[in-house]
Amino acid sequence: MKKKTPVSDDFHSYVKALWVCVASIPLAIIFIFFLVHLGFFGELPSTEEITNPKSYLATEILSSDGNQIGTFFHENRVHVEYEEIPENLINALVSTEDERFFQHSGIDFRSLGRALISLGSGGGGSTITQQLAKLMFTPDPARGILVRVIQKLKEWVIAIEIERRYTKQEILTMYLNKFDFLYQAVGIHSASNVYFGKNPIELNIEESALLVGMCKNPSYYNPARQSRFELAKNRRNTVLGQLKRNEFINDFELDSLRSIPVTLNFNPKGHDKGLAPYLRENIRAYMKDWISKNPKANGDRYNLYTDGLKIYTTIDSRIQSSAEKAVKKHMKNLQSVFFKRIKNRKAGPFYFPDELSYDEGQKIIKRAMRKTTRYKNLIKMGLSEKKIINVFNSPVEMSLFSHDGDIDTIMSPFDSIQYYKSIYQAGLLSVEPQTGFIKAWVGGVDFKHFKYDAVMQGRRQVGSTFKPFVYAAAIADKKYSPCMEVPNIQTCIDSGQFGLKEPWCPKNSNDKYGGVLTLKKAIAGSINTVTTFLMKQIGPSPVSSIAKSLGVTSRVPVVPSIALGTLDLSVYELVGAYTAFGNKGLYTEPIVILRIEDKNGVLLEDFSPTTREVFSPEVAYTVVNLLEGVTESGTGIRLRHSGGKYRYNVVTDYPYNFTNPIAGKTGTTQNNSDGWFIGMVPNLITGIWTGCQDRSAHFGITEFGQGATTALPIWAILMKDLYTQPNIGISHGDFEKPKGPMSIALDCNSYLKQSMETDDEQSEYN
After folding, report:
1. Which CATH number does the domain 425-466+477-486+529-593+612-748 belong to among 3.40.710.10, 3.20.20.140, 3.60.9.10, 3.30.710.10?
2. Do residues 312 and 593 touch, judged by C-beta distance below 8 A?
3. For residues 709 and 713, what is the distance between their CA atoms, to the nearest angstrom?
4. Do residues 257 and 240 touch, judged by C-beta distance below 8 A?
5. Would you give the DSSP letter of residue 483?
6. Which of 69, 155, 566, 697 could form a disulfide with 133 if both were Cys (CB 3.0 to 4.6 A apart)?
7. Report field, pTM of the whole predicted structure over 0.85
8. How do residues 204-219 score in pLDDT, each as one tens digit?
9. Which CA distances in Å does 101 have to 93, 158, 245?
10. pLDDT tens digits, one per residue of 475-531
11. CA–CA separation, 338 vs 699, rounded Å?
């Protein structure tokens, strides 16, 4: 029998020491954990902070069709409830970030042990709850191993406290509401909008997987960066693999989903980016005033950037998107033509038909120079005007606007001023006449470079778009028929009449006269002599009164020349005034905000438009009948026909070939400085202005500068696009006729026959 080898005392001591070490490590961790809990290594968030964590909620601007069109934010985050998060997103998150999330109480010791043994190569040990703790209370990563260990222990403490106070569903919701997905998209609601243009509940499984993939490292797996696109796609496929591993999808579904390409609808947020920036700036200014007058119940002021208000608007995001595309498309084309036309001009964009043109253009640029910040700073430095001009003539690096994206170039500030004076601008407003609801608002060609809003802030001469108000006043007063004939002769209003100091004898734009014209033919051709005739019959006072009743707040001089649109109005005023024609004589003030709610959905204020009857339904319908003639045989005829050739293809996307009823009016002001078109179908009025920043910058000939060329194509492009989207419901039908018999004759054949019979009877009587 073999003797047992006696175990040495040294071996016993070694085993004993080993067990002491093994036992002391967790004891040490527990002891340090206890010290962390007591705040020995730095202050921890209070129970109140953990129970009610501070959060910044963005104010949302919402469209009438349920989409977010913008936010005001300190942190672009919109809170969502658990029920608003799709199940596939929850499954993807748990499967990828924390498989045992529903089993642990904040710390997953199994994952932690794996992470320690593999030194992180086999995956991290942080649970979703720990990640939430880090997002909420330890956002900055610590430097140094010891400090990082202490920070990790703090996260454990906070994670355990979070688990004690919230359900698993609440923790998942808080995490998804808090995570920063880049591009100012904090939280899953903003991320869904930024990357896919939809709400979270609408995310499909592969979209959810892409966003969950970003949770590992949003910068590294950024799908919006070309250099990271494949990494993001591969990470998405890894998340899909985790869904298969956790039996949420099968092998066939995994293969199918992995084969789907990554498709983004990328809409980065920011004040200069996204849909309807000019409108959003208008709402921002309005809300600043509203907040000053509407305190919270406790007397505190609302914060537009952190209190999560909801602003519900009348804007239809589909119409808005189509309007912005239409403006961009035509203005890019028009700009190209304008650059060609001014290439050899001495004064560049400025048009002065005499030898002084260059000097006059330089004066305009110098006036603009003196308004710049650069000029004012140089003045403060004590530089003389001559030296400042030398500075402005010295080339420097700069970034310039173009319709194809910003251009990095070297140019003198003086030349850059002339360049920006050469940019054609546009303003567009679409309104539903029956409600006054604004459906689209485009204030310019690029908000980043041109902050001035052509819809509300800009006021420009309206030209012939004002003539319908003269016709309306005359029809209301005299019951004139559109079929009434007026001689096409130069008409004068004598001195002494209506306060004139000298005779006023306006000419036709083509300086052609002769024959007679019906009122319908006259307004279709925008004939000045006939409008002057009507003004002579009624005087300027009723026209001015009607304009004021139709919501015009700008000055309307009580002088005959307003008949030809010599006054300046905003797009907002002009389109608002036209609502009465499309709404049976009832003016409806255009509005864009429907209601304001707090973050909990409590109504703070709702809004409704101001309405008033300005003229009878019969008068309104008669004016509409007149304006239909503009697109049937007048200055808006190119909406209908497919003939004609236009140099440089200036009329974008021509021909249009519309066949449905359209009422409209073009407008072109003196020297072609402004081009207008107001187009109406029964349930949508859209007004468009085009022109350069300075009135002296314009096309030199009417062929290019008229409203039918610069503005009408935008309306045509917009409406063609809207008619491809039948769900929007833009009317193709006839304008509604007033009930009962009409006392104003609209059928010119019957009217002329009746007039001839009346003349015969009078001849027999005489």
Report:
1. 3.40.710.10
2. yes
3. 7
4. yes
5. T
6. 155
7. no
8. 999 999 999 999 999 9
9. 10, 16, 15
10. 999 999 999 999 999 999 999 999 899 999 999 988 999 999 999 999 999 999 999
11. 7
